[in-house]
Amino acid sequence: IEAGFSEMRNELKSRDALWRRIQLECQQLHTELLKIREYKDMQEIQMKHQSSCVQLTEQLENQSTELLAQSQECQQQELKKIRTHLYREEQSHCSEQERMKTEISDLTEELHQKEITIATIMEKASLLEKQLKTELEMKDKLLAKQQLLDFQYKVIKSENTHLKEMV
């Protein structure tokens, strides 16, 4: 998009330079026109030459007026086309920016929801881990108690066997 804008700026600068050159030529024509009028005034003696100078002056005036009008009209049309194109490009760029903002917002919301889900899962995992540790401790105690009872049972059984033998 920046390259397009740069290209359009360069095109405008080029057309502006052309416009200034045409204006300079018009000024030069106008200066020449003034010189011709001065010459005409100095040569009042020569009527034939005077009428031809007037005709040339009028032709030059008409031509310069026509050239200026054509140049201005062409320049205005080109400027209008460029402005329209630039406006469309800016609208397209704005639309793209809005779409990207919306997409970023949606992705941010999705990320936030995932972070919440991860935090919830981590919390549940922590609770389950605590429950598991508690159950493991209880099972360890029960196992130790079971082993103690087994040992006591063996001791009693052994005493019983010993007592039976003695009887």
TrEMBL record:
Gene Ontology biological process terms, A to Z: centriole replication; de novo centriole assembly involved in multi-ciliated epithelial cell differentiation
Compartment(s) where it occurs, according to its Swiss-Prot or TrEMBL record: Cytoplasm
Coiled-coil intervals: 53-124
Primary residence: cytoplasm
This protein's UniProt keywords: Coiled coil, Cytoplasm
One GO cellular component term noted in the UniProt record for this chain: cytoplasm
Keyword Disulfide bond: no
Protein name, per record: DEUP1 protein
Record gene name: Deup1
